[in-house]
């Protein structure tokens, strides 16, 4: 609590009293603290690829250019790191649009089964490469839902790409949709992957939070996928949750109000 005292003076001189203002600053301080952490995280995340790019360009300059095979490997690394930085900055811009509430949803009636099949198709190449089987199942009554297709595609893309990243060869991924007891459309992405330790689960939707930073980076992750998914789902009026069993797999479920929004578009 912050306390400020302001003395009140009489016009003819002398003190009439004091006004004390008690202000709860814990929330403000928490916000400030998380803003500081965020800036530190962003700087670090940008610095890491830049440092790599610098050292590989130096190596090219120092003679690696004369060895075509080596040179092409180094250029490959530089390209990968650049791609990751572009992804990171794109994700950050996306998040900042949600933070400043500039993000507008363009809700349209969407065939849920078709949308899930589409996501599965989009990843078919990577799935085949890792010999991961994918299944799509849609419960009765799911039919059409009002949602922002581009944004929900991104949510699904982030979730399936995580399932792919954290599931070893030969595993399985399932996409499921149903109407739950509350009448919400519930979409689940389930995998048979490495799972997440209990202690990490509750922080997993935080920006830049990762169970294993090195692994996530090697997989090209930005640490922002789940936080973006949560913002998009929240903007739709739904919620998102993750269940996981270490070594067994994970399942992420998000819910959306399926009906046409009342009155003006959200
Ligand atoms: P990243 O870009 O690192 O994947 P996310 O925000 O998408 O960032 O996920 C945060 C972290 O949650 C990941 O780094 C990973 O440790 C963990 N994670 C997310 N999805 C899964 C999953 N399906 N299986 C295991 N771990 C996961």
Automatic annotation (TrEMBL):
Localization per record: Cell membrane
Domain Histidine kinase, residue spans: 41-260
Domain PAC: 1-37
Protein name: histidine kinase
The gene coding this protein: walK
Residues of the whole record sequence present: 344 to 609 of 609
């Amino acid at each position: 609590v912050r306390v400020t005292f302001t003395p009140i003076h009489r016009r003819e001189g002398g003190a009439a009293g004091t006004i004390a203002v008690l202000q709860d600053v814990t929330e403000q301080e928490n916000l400030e603290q998380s803003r500081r952490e965020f800036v530190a995280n962003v700087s670090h995340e940008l610095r890491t690829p830049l440092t790599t790019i610098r050292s590989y360009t130096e190596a090219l300059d120092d003679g690696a250019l004369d060895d075509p095979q080596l040179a092409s490997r180094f250029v490959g690394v530089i390209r990968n790191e650049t791609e990751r930085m572009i992804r990171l900055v794109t994700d950050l811009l996306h998040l900042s649009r949600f933070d400043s509430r500039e993000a507008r949803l363009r809700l349209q009636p969407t065939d849920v089964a078709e949308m899930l099949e589409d996501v599965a198709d989009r990843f078919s190449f990577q799935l085949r490469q890792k010999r991961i089987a994918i299944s799509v199942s849609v419960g009765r009554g799911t039919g059409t839902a009002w949602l922002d297709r581009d944004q929900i595609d991104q949510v699904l893309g982030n979730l399936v790409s995580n399932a792919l990243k954290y599931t070893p060869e030969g595993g399985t991924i399932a996409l499921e949709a149903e109407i739950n007891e509350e009448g919400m459309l519930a979409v689940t992405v389930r995998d048979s992957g490495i799972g997440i330790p209990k202690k990490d689960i509750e922080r997993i939707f935080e920006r830049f939070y990762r169970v294993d930073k090195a692994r996530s980076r090697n997989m090209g992750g930005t640490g922002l996928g789940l936080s973006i998914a949560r913002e998009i789902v929240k903007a739709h009026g739904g919620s998102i949750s993750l269940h996981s069993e270490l070594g067994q797999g994970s399942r992420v479920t998000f819910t959306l109000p399926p009906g046409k929004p009342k009155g003006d578009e959200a």
